[in-house]
Amino acid sequence: MSIRTACPYCGVGCGVRATPDGRSLTVEGDADHPANLGRLCSKGSALGSTVGLEGRLLHPMIGTRRASWNEAIARVAGRFSETIARHGSDSVAFYVSGQLLTEDYYVANKLMKGFIGSGNIDTNSRLCMASAVIAHKLAFGADLVPGCYEDLELADLVVFSGHNAAWTHPVLFRRMEAARARGQRHVVIDPRRTDTAEAADLHLALAPQTDVRLWNGLLADLMRRDAVDRAYIAAHVAGFADVEAELARADQSPQAVAADCGVPLADLETFFRMFAETPRTVSLFSMGANQSAQGVAKGSAILNVHLATGRIGKPGACPFSITGQPNAMGGRETGGMATTLTGHMDFDEAARARVGRFWGAPRVAPAPGLKAVDMFDAVADGRIKAIWIMATNPAVSLPDASRVRAALEACSFVVVSDCVADTDTLAFAHVKLPALAWGEKDGTVTNSERRISRQRPLFAPPGEARADWRIIADVATAMGFGDGFGWRNPGQVFREWARLSAYENTGRVLNLGPMAGISPEAYEALEPVQWPVTAAGGTPRLFTDGRFQTADGRARMVPVAARGPAQPATAAFPLSLNTGRVRDHWHTMTRTALAPELCRHAPEPYVEMHPADAGPLGIADGALARVQTAQGEAVALARISDRQRRGSIFMPMHWTEALAPAGRSNPLVAAEVDPRSGQPEFKHTPARVRAYRETWRGFFLARDAWRAPSGLDLVWRRIPHAACQLHEFAGRGDERERAALHKALAGKPGGDVLRFEDPGAGSLREAWLAGERLDRVIFFTAAGALPPRDWLAELFAAESLAAADRAALLIGRQPGTPSDTSAIVCACRGVRARRIETAIGEGCATLDAVAEATGAGANCGSCRPEIARMIGAARGEVRHAA
Predict the structure, then answer these.
(1) What is the Cα–Cα distance from 175 to 162, expressed in whole angstroms?
(2) CA dist., res. 213 & res. 221, Å (int)
(3) Of 109, 317, 486, 846, which residue is 20 to 30 A from 154 by alpha carbon distance?
(4) Three-state SS for 683?
(5) How big is the CA angle at 271 (ends 266 and 273), to the nearest 5 degrees?
(6) What pLDDT, in 10s, does the model give residues 139-174?
(7) Distance between CA atoms of 852 and 743, rounded to whole angstroms?
(8) 379-420 pLDDT, tens per residue?
(9) Which residues of 199-210 are buried (b: 16+ CB within 10 A; e: fewer)?
(10) Distance of alpha carbon 654 from alpha carbon 97, whole angstroms
């Protein structure tokens, strides 16, 4: 029987129907869930590949030894209580995650802000949505997202501002397909020509950090055209005159704006005209806008345009901040961020007293706590002496990540609760607490359109793993706060949270009051619903009556000035490093790396750069390149493409110490933050690139994951396959380096060994067999090509090798069959680019025709934008960046 639950990946909040069978799982989209209407992306479709118990943390650990829960809880509670008694409540901190459920968030926030009495709880949502939160509060009086997904289908114009929806929110992108067919137009504002930009009617490849200039220029142009809604402004908006005065301080002519933003004047004028002439406009803004030292200003500039034109609270017209994580919104609602108390309340005296009365809390935090980057700075300098990290991996995901590692290494007491046993952050934990994973969790999440959905358990808790809310409550009880943390199930936590949202609520939009008395049966059967919840149900759109959550009910336009990057490029670091996500991976890959099919489209770290930047540096496509900033260095595969703006480079953020220690991007990122939101600047760090110039290359295939021993100067990457693990190597040493690596790889003698060696070419090929099965393969070369890896990787699935395959092992190619080594395009079906190109060449001129011929794009559809680009390229329709 299928169980309805919610996907654990992005903020779309897709519904999933999952059918468990033992510990295996089949999944499909939930056609009855209003967020996705039955669709899933490549990641959601592969959830069944990620629910095994390999690599799970299943027992509490103190240091390197297994401990009982009683001992682990006592250790955590004792050390936190001790630290607070000696150094005060601000000497401890929680760093939590958008992967937590709302119930988990609520309990963690209650313990820290209500009973420990510090504001030092922050979430990794600080890294993705904090600037939008502040922009919303400035404009609307609270962190309120006004629109709903239906608006994306009703809009006549959608503006993607720093939002590659085709990769980061592919289900939403597919929801717009029908609207595109009826004539909906898309404009993409992004330095990169992403798949979203490739399919758009207009792409503005603006220079880094010129977003505010662009949106201010648009507003000024709308004023010149008399395209602002002065009646709406007079009735519902304050601050227009101040914004108008700010705009007058700079030359807002299209010519000046185009020059400053680095975009063609004709394209800019087209955008201005399209916006002015299209009342039903949705502006989607995401990481490209938020992850900036001027992220709040970017968000405010976007909101200003919509308020000035009255394009808010109406079907098909709104500014829409899209969240990155499945429960970033739940964390924002319950107070998971250091800058709010709970329930969209701030730290004013009335709110503190209200929350204190409701909780019966002894010491409500008097002020906001430390935001993420500041929090780890305080760990580094000793102000924070004990930290509890929940369901996130800051040793990889925070900027200037090497400094974060050093801070954790020096910290007196680090607790990590997680579901996996081996993350970069867990390496620094003094106590490790096993938490439930997706498929075991029980609670609620809130998606980007304010829709609350249930995550339901599919499996019994494995080992000794516990729900996060229960772990926190157990620690709270051991600290002496048991009266406030005595829930027996997540439904009780949810009811308390719903009551708090309604408690003495005389004007806060966030209100779950009608759900405060929800029965256990109704909680279990809860259907997706958008807050604020009324007796009649959910609320799709906010501000339909022009009333906002401010003292006078009017929205506020906020003057913002365009300014340059916090760290401009220099002669030493002339390029702008931009980091972000790839299509099929998620965060630090602790889940997606378990699904080999998700490792095919972008199998290893890369740096994308424009040919005009790569050529003078002698960097060729497919070669290794060194990326350097003032913070650190990484080595990644070079991808040369004119889809990247000149002067800018792009690196994905996902890889970790266990998968590609030299390819981690966040140690390169400067820890610049927005001064109001504290959100880090992930989209611009001055950088330079050099050729790596390896002297030899090689790969190693084995059934288990392997890590290079210390002391070897290597660049290596691990790429999961279905039946084995592929390890790619490169080095700049001589034969002694290769011999040392070979010794580490070969291990103990045993089994049959096939071997070929050519010392003159620095070539070595070996294959080990265990009985009739392939056990290990090593290929090294100092000159010449290496064979494709896929055929060799597939042989590991065979129970016994055919004679012909055994004979061809050291050749590395299937005998008599030419290998297709082109890139994987469709992760679900494993369809490569060459097969799709062949189908297009044979007359498949539409997405559906390609899907019919090859299977690509027929399942989740995440690859459809890339296939559309390939069809366009075959027609000669590819646009080129400036």
Answers:
(1) 19
(2) 12
(3) 846
(4) coil
(5) 95
(6) 999 999 999 999 999 999 999 999 999 999 999 999
(7) 49
(8) 999 999 999 999 999 999 999 999 999 999 999 999 999 999
(9) bbebbbbbbbbb
(10) 16
Could you write out the DSSP letters of every residue in 191-205?
Answer: SS--HHHHTSSEEE-
Work out the number of other CB atoms within 10 angstroms of the CB of residue 694. 18
Interval 784-834: pLDDT, tens: 889 999 999 999 999 999 999 999 999 998 887 677 888 899 988 889 999
CB-based contacts of 653: which residues, under 8 Å, 6+ apart? 397, 579, 580, 581, 665, 666, 682
What percent of the chain stands above pLDDT 70?
99
Contact 61, 432 (CB under 8 A): yes
**In angstroms, rounded to a whole number, what is the distance separating the alpha carbons of residues 678 and 323?**
17
> What proportion of the chain, given as a percentage, has pLDDT over 90?
91
Tokens standing for residue 180: 């595109």
Cα–Cα distance, 72 to 433 (Å, whole number): 8
In a 10 Å sphere around its CB, with 0-12 CB exposed, 13-18 middle and 19+ buried, how is residue 767 labelled? Answer: buried
CB atoms within 10 A of CB 608: 20
Q: Can you give 717-750 as a three-state secondary structure string?
A: EEEECCCCEEEEEEECCCHHHHHHHHHHHHCCCC
pLDDT at 456: 98
Least confident of 374-383, 494-503, 546-555, 700-709: 700-709
Specify whether the CB–CB gap between 229 and 309 falls below 8 A.
Answer: yes
Torsion of CA 739, 743, 744, 749, to 10 degrees: 160
Give the model's pLDDT for residue 880: 39
666: β partners: none
H/E element holding 175?
Answer: helix 170-175
Mean pLDDT score across all residues of the chain? 95
Place of tokens 């044979």: 842
Of the candidates 253, 164, 158, the one whose C-alpha atom is nearest the C-alpha of residue 213 is: 253
- pLDDT(879) > 70: no
| β-bridge mates for residue 389, sequence order | 95, 416
Query: Which residues pair with residue 148 across a beta bridge?
Result: none
Question: What does the pLDDT look like over 294-333, one tens digit per residue?
Answer: 999 999 999 999 999 999 999 999 999 999 899 999 999 9
Is this prediction's pTM over 0.85? Answer: yes
Lowest model confidence (mean pLDDT) among 543-547, 748-752, 758-762, 855-859: 748-752
Q: Which residues does residue 525 pair with via DSSP β-bridges, in sequence order?
A: none
Question: Is 113 exposed, middle or buried, given 0-12, 13-18 or 19+ CB atoms closer than 10 A?
Answer: buried
| Amino acid of residue 579 | T
Instruction: Tokens 């937590």: give the residue.
Output: 100
Encoded amino acid at 698, one letter? G
φ, ψ of residue 683 in degrees (nearest 5): -105, -5
Which long-range CB contacts under 8 A does 701-707 form with residues at least 24 apart?
701/725, 701/726, 701/727, 701/776, 701/777, 701/789, 701/792, 701/793, 701/796, 702/727, 702/775, 702/776, 702/777, 703/775, 703/776, 703/796, 705/658, 706/745, 707/658
Separation of alpha carbons 576 and 685, rounded Å: 6
| Distance between CA atoms of residues 565 and 532, nearest Å | 38
Question: Measured between alpha carbons, how far is 802 from 806 in angstroms, rounded to an integer?
Answer: 6
Sign, CA torsion 835/841/843/846 = positive
Structure tokens at 777: 């393969």
Task: Write the single-letter amino acid at 823.
Answer: A
What's the pLDDT band for 712 if we cut at 50, 70, 90?
Answer: confident
Amino acid letter for position 805: D
What is the residue type of 157?
L
What is the structure's pLDDT at 882? 31
CB-based burial label for 244 (10 Å; 0-12, 13-18, 19+): middle
Q: What Rg do the C-alpha atoms of the chain give, in angstroms?
A: 27
Residue bearing tokens 């149900």: 537
- Joined together, the tokens standing for residue 584 give 């099929």
